[in-house]
Amino acid sequence: MNMKKVLTLAGSDTSGGAGIQADLKTFQELGVYGMTALTTIVTMDPKNHWHHNVFPQNIDTVKSQLETVLSVGIDAMKTGMLGSVEIIEEAAKMIDENKVKHVVIDPVMVCKGEDEVLHPETADALRELLVPRATVVTPNLFEAWQLAKTDHPIKTVDDMKEAAVKIHALGPKYVLIKGGSKLNHEKAVDVLYDGKDFTILESELVDTTYTHGAGCTNSAAITAELAKGKSVEEAVQVAKDFITAAISNGFKLNEYVGPTMHGAYRNERNGATV
Fold this sequence. Notes:
The chain is of the alpha/beta class. 39% of the residues lie in helices and 20% in strands.
């Protein structure tokens, strides 16, 4: 059995819905072998309205983890929350030295429920060092606004297209901007841009707040499918179907958050009840 191997270089979500926890669940569901290099640990304070606390890992710890994974070899990788410019620099170096074929950059800048960029200096490092090395970069509306540096927030499909063009100019092969529930549109719309053509991906808009980890899950699904040999267009469509099912079957974890259901896509394909 030729099991494809994938790496997630990302943070740990202690509550289990996002970060490397979401990535590993998604990899398992889509039939690839997931390995991790942990960049940050994120905890939530139940005594302070689930406020997020972020603990970046030492760069030497990150390097040691990468050395472990790369000794095995990988078919694709993704990044999530990176936590420091040093880690971003190390990720770029690792991609180049190991000639990683498929690189999915999920440019995480805020924690769900928070509204400030975690480390403003990392946004510039992402733009300069990792986005140009991406097979696919997968920002949400806020992240796309930060990367594209447009003079206004992204609110429409036309805004998404404008931002995609600007982000593509940074160097990635493909840009996927995720509309989510904050877009002024009756559907859940994503825009994929390859430098020439736009592909619009639509699904029914799910009326739910149980979307914790949706971005991580979506980018992990793309990574898994690329590792299995799918084209970017095919991988993005599978990921769209995967995350739509996951969000449609999201559930309440506590009074503050509800994650997506990572097993929903498999259950739907097998005709099972989630």
